[in-house]
Write a structure and sequence with these properties.
Elements (H helix, E strand, L loop, with lengths): L2 E3 L2 E3 L2 H20 L8 H18 L2 H4 L2 H19 L15 H13 L2 H12 L4 H8 L3 H25 L22
Antiparallel strand pairs: 1-2
Length: 189
């Protein structure tokens, strides 16, 4: 994978990522101007950099033309996917439900019951707050597959917790929703 940019030759995926990292940061900064303050720069940056790495890995100059034109829409799509998963409700306006020992135990049991990669995503991303690009590398997934796995894991977690919440008088809506039906666990911490 070789690309000539400004007369110099970029010889590796790592070189392309390093050279175009400022573009990823620019796209994140642009997105941050249009989202609520509850959205974190780190989460968007992680998604953009993961997509940049995937674009660099897949890039073929003969087929794809200029690298920036190939990578930009992939990073923008990753940002949109990530934003779809983020709870757009301002933190102060959320209905917070106190975490009882029973609820904490129920969440721990539900996470433990998730199979391999689902559990790894829930624990890594939400409990250990690991960046998405690191999780993607560890699980050998591209950014789109990791976002899909995270969505799937959250849905499975929500289905597992629904009976527990119903039994304690809490509605499923107390888990929050990103508008796509994906349960959020932010209120369970």
């Amino acid at each position: 994978m070789m690309e000539t940019v400004g007369g110099s030759s970029s010889g590796s995926t790592a070189d392309l990522v390093e050279q175009y990292e400022p573009l990823a940061h620019h796209l994140v900064a642009d997105a941050m101007r249009r989202v609520p303050p509850s959205v974190t720069t780190e989460e968007l940056t992680s998604s953009a950099l993961t997509a940049l790495g995937e674009a660099a890995r897949l890039y073929e100059p003969e087929s794809h033309g200029e690298f920036a034109g190939f990578a930009r829409p992939r990073m923008q799509a990753a940002l949109v996917r990530t934003l779809h998963l983020i709870d757009w409700t301002a933190r102060g306006s959320r209905s917070r439900v106190p975490a009882s020992p029973d609820r904490v135990h129920a969440v721990q049991a539900a996470v433990a019951a998730l199979p391999g990669d689902r559990r790894a995503v829930i624990e890594g991303y939400f409990l250990h707050e690991r960046p998405m690009h690191l999780l993607a590398a560890e699980l050998e997934l591209d950014s789109e597959d990791l976002v899909d796995l995270r969505t799937d894991a959250l849905r499975a977690l929500g289905r597992t917790l629904a009976p527990v919440l119903a039994a304690t008088g809490q509605e499923r809506s107390s888990l929050g929703s990103s508008g796509t039906g994906s349960p959020r666990i932010s209120n369970l911490r």
